[in-house]
Write a structure and sequence with these properties.
The protein is mainly alpha-helical. It contains 20 helices and no strands. It is globular, with a radius of gyration of 22 Å.
């Protein structure tokens, strides 16, 4: 056990030092703290974005889902990746261009910028910032919970200990360099994550006797575990799979991911970042599902499926590698938690109270407040990482996402219409998941987005909420001096 602890702490110390070293590049301004002065290399942007997008959800939630559901878990990730590809093909470039054009440092403020008639939609900014603040705080709490679960399994520590350790480390390096520190540590964490997970997956398959033995044993446990097309779906396979595609497309509403695009040094380098992003994302998804499947064979009696990965590592790996694996899991949770804490602090200091946001010290203090809020939720809120992450992801995707898309398409709307779009998206998502309980048939982002865009379409037909001076702005989004060529979009 001593070897495990030493290995774990050594990796965490290195990660913390990497983040703290960013203080030497810090410029002491709110812009540098929130968007790194828009100077981040595309490869760093890609690795940071993919580590932020795939963290405790992958290590804990997806592994647990594969453990329980079997091969059908692969459809979740295939759909997720396809939806994410659509967003990368068009949206990220626009976000980078528009954020620099309007000199904004957060997604809520970008949503508040009007196209076609100038001005700023203050009520939209406030509503978006409040959603960001509360949902990302809960999302960050889920990441802290994910890390604490691993420490509980391996060391027997109270789960509160892991949450506190994660929050403290995040605050240390975020204070040092803001989002630059977050991105630097994300890059280091991304390598730790992929190496540790791939190593465990390979050793688990070898322990079972190969892939043929894996699938035959899964079939013996439960034939449904190797059923490629799941049965019993209320609306059939196609709608179920499409729901996951929209789940991946839900990145359009995630402030903690899109702010990395804003921090990139040039919109023209988006294709390069995209290639790096998916070169990491795809193999990591495969390894996550594989670990879940092998854990079902080697650990058939787990009470909490979200503990499959740390328990499997404890059974298969030597002590030094167990510590490395645990550090990879813990790093994964921090790579998302730090991003969400920074995005939430921007919501306070840059969006809700912009006068305060002019102060570099106030911006940093906002980070401390949000970290404390996330820790409080982690210690007192729901313990399921998978459920909490999906809820927060869905709510952000169906509220901020539709307004962002409409802004990037240059389709104008009044404050009231934008708020109605956000409210209908959230209402549609909640109705589908919590009242109709149909999220098992179609992931709730799809009906939420249908509701949001449906409200906008009806308003357009009736001429409600469309500023009269902006009629010229409702033409094709590819017109005008800032339009992208077809070559750029598909590059």
């Amino acid at each position: 056990m001593t070897v495990i602890v030493v290995s774990f702490l050594a990796v965490l110390l290195v990660i913390t030092a990497i983040g703290a070293a960013s203080v030497f590049r810090a410029r002491g301004t709110p812009e540098d703290y929130l968007v790194a002065s828009r100077s981040v290399h595309p490869a760093l942007t890609a690795l940071s974005s993919v580590a932020t997008n795939n963290s405790g959800y992958m290590f804990v939630g997806l592994v647990g889902f594969a453990y329980a559901a079997g091969l059908q878990a692969m459809w979740l990730q295939i759909g997720w990746i396809l939806g994410d590809m659509v967003a990368w093909a068009w949206l990220h470039r626009r976000v980078r261009q528009e954020s620099e054009k309007h000199d904004v440092k957060s997604l809520p403020t970008l949503l508040g910028k009007a196209h076609g008639h100038g001005g700023s939609h203050r009520r939209v900014v406030v509503a978006s910032a409040l959603l960001t603040l509360f949902l990302l705080s809960a999302y960050a709490a889920a990441q802290l919970n994910a890390g604490s679960k691993a420490l509980h399994v391996l060391f027997g520590w109270d789960e509160a200990v892991g949450a506190v350790i994660g929050a403290v480390i995040v605050v240390i390096y975020c204070f040092a360099g803001g989002i630059r520190a977050s991105i630097w540590t994300d890059v280091a964490q991304s390598f730790i994550m992929i190496i540790s997970l791939s190593l465990l997956a390979g050793m688990a398959v070898s322990e079972i006797g190969g892939f043929a033995a894996l699938f035959s044993t899964l079939r013996e446990i439960d034939p449904a575990l190797v059923q490629i097309i799941p049965g019993g779906l209320a609306l059939g396979f196609a709608p179920w799979f499409v729901g996951f595609v929209f789940g991946g497309f839900g990145v359009i509403g995630q402030p903690h991911i899109l702010v990395r695009t804003m921090a990139m040094r040039s919109a023209s380098e988006i294709p390069r970042a995209r290639r790096v992003y998916f070169a990491w994302f795809i193999p990591f998804s495969i390894a996550s599902v594989l670990v879940g499947l092998t854990a079902r064979v080697l650990l058939p009696d787990l009470n909490d499926v979200e503990l499959a990965l740390p328990q499997l590592g404890l059974d298969l790996l030597p002590g030094v590698l167990v510590g490395f694996l645990l550090a990879g899991l813990f790093s994964a949770t921090m790579s998302t938690a730090d991003s969400q804490i920074l995005a939430s602090s921007a919501a306070i200091t840059h969006d809700l109270a912009p006068r305060i946001g002019r102060s570099y010290l106030a911006t940093k203090l906002g980070t401390l407040v949000i970290a404390a809020m996330a820790l409080a939720i982690a210690l007192t809120g729901p313990r399921s990482v998978f459920a909490l992450v999906l809820m927060a992801w869905s709510a952000l995707a169906t509220t901020l996402g539709p307004v962002l898309l409409l802004r990037m398409l240059r389709w104008p709307m009044s404050d009231n219409l934008a708020l109605a779009v956000m409210g209908s998206g959230l209402g549609g998502m909640a109705l589908w998941r919590y009242l109709l309980h149909l999220d098992g048939a179609i992931y709730e982002i799809f009906p939420g987005l249908v509701a949001a865009f449906g409200v906008y379409g009806i308003a357009r037909l009736l001429g409600i909420g469309i500023p009269p001076t902006a009629t010229e702005a409702v033409t094709s989004p590819l017109e005008g001096s800032e339009a992208l060529s077809a070559t750029q979009v598909t590059e």
